[in-house]
């Protein structure tokens, strides 16, 4: 069995040393193979960070250094082609008068990381206002993007793909709400992403990101969601409470925050009852990187009671239970109906993914089967309470 605790502790210590410009000595026992260490390096998203500091990796196995170098070169190539493809899209939106905001990894990569390619990610998350959705889709299509078959259960975002340079298929998640779940839209409303947006000239003209308090709150919610539901990676879907690249993100955001930013973040947490979630993310960052924060900040955030609806939402990872909370939190009857219809009557390709042995069934029958099974789950949930 792989000793991931020891490996993760070693990697966190190595990252701390390298960021402090101190050599990171190999201290793992011979019983831990370099391939096991590589798997955790890949999981934590830090190959290029290590490669850029390879001169400080004292005593690391040569085979591991070679594997890190191979992956680092691939990351740089991916970043180069991804940036070229996506920046052309963002510029086109800007020239068409469509306001957009970069979110998550790409926003962090081009505004806080010294080298964008260090911030490993699989796509770019791009937010537009709902009224520009159709015009945005038309620009995607004009530039050669095509729709991805999204997993069932997405309501306020969709995936777009683009073949680039014969090497990669690049992906953009187009959002018209910063969160796909209504229960979270009240915590991080769309106006917060546009009203105090900051330019990202390193990405391209017309590129923007949210302000740092909004980015930190969004990253917190995103990290909590991944801890429950996982995220897509090359090796499949991974469930993770924390990765070192995320801790580095939080550290960079924290370093950029002014006293006024921290005050705004705390006031937002008090209004919406999310202080404990932010405290948890910051505590993980401190554990990994020994980062410095304003005195008493984490304790002050922790004292705020967690929003009870949010607590129920995250305490119950079952998608059906979360769906009912989202349905109640939907802001209008039209929104409630669209949520219900999309959940109850998914398209045929999603149904065939769920029921591959029923390819000969007509679509209404497949949808009926899904509704029957969902009703059964709802009854079992009610009885078990």
Q: What does this 3D model show about the protein?
A:
With 385 residues, this protein is α+β, with helices and mostly antiparallel strands. The chain has helices at residues 4-19, 34-44, 47-52, 62-95, 104-111, 133-142, 182-185, 190-195, 212-229, 244-256, 259-272, 275-289, 297-303, 308-315, 319-329, 333-344, 348-354, 363-384; strands at 24-25, 57-58, 100-103, 124-128, 146-147, 157-164, 168-175, 198-199, 208-209, 231-233, 236-238. The strands form four sheets. The protein has a five-stranded mixed sheet. Strands 1-2 form a two-stranded parallel sheet. α1 packs across α2. The protein is globular. The two termini are 37 Å apart. The mean pLDDT is 90.
